[in-house]
């Protein structure tokens, strides 16, 4: 946490997050981190979303062995914190500070540099595999920034994956401060694009079941 603050402090100031609150949150985070390492501590929810957690490994094993049950795995990511706040970048120094904030936040929530996340959970944890978002397809030709990549596992026909760019885990950056709310951005639970795809996916399953019955 101390390393995150050191790397991100200039960028946090640009999004109007006060330094005094940063220091208070760092102390809270230190206690949470300490509790998360204790086997008896009641913070299983935090442990479960960590990459390679026991919970995720059990899900991985189910998906690995699954050859019959249709599954749609949905992953989202938004690594650009600048786009979430009303921040006016005026200098190269400001741009560098935001880039450092993005990098520091990514490392903080995912434990790995250069990975993608939804502001809380790494994309790899959401999808049962490392992300592959080199070829993104526009969901809406009028909004080329809103994209997804459909992935179908060749050796697991019932498992499909979709990755959506620019969607958040929540309206607040819980990893830093539950009271730090963003000014912009769409959350995964209320994303029209995901709801539309889910409806189409379910309709396809029902149609296939009817044809095979």
SSE layout and pairings?
Elements: H1 2-14, H2 19-36, H3 44-48, H4 54-65, E1 71-77, H5 92-110, H6 123-127, E2 137-140, E3 143-152, E4 159-165, E5 167-168, E6 186-187, H7 192-212
Parallel strand pairs: 1-4, 5-6
Antiparallel strand pairs: 2-3, 3-4
Helix pairs in contact: 1-2, 1-5
What would you say this structure looks like, in words?
By secondary structure, the chain is α/β, with parallel strands linked by helices. The protein folds into 2 domains: about 1-45 and about 85-115, no CATH class; about 55-80 and about 115-213, no CATH class. It has 7 helices and 6 strands, in the order ααααβααβββββα. The chain has helices at about 1-15, 20-35, 45-50, 55-65, 90-110, 125, 190-210; strands at about 70-75, 135-140, 145-150, 160-165, 165-170, 185. The chain has a 4-stranded mixed β-sheet with strand order 1-4-3-2. A two-stranded parallel sheet has the order 5-6. Helix 1 (about 1-15) packs antiparallel against helix 2 (about 20-35) and helix 1 (about 1-15) packs across helix 5 (about 90-110). About 20% of the residues are buried. The model has no long low-confidence stretch (mean pLDDT about 80).
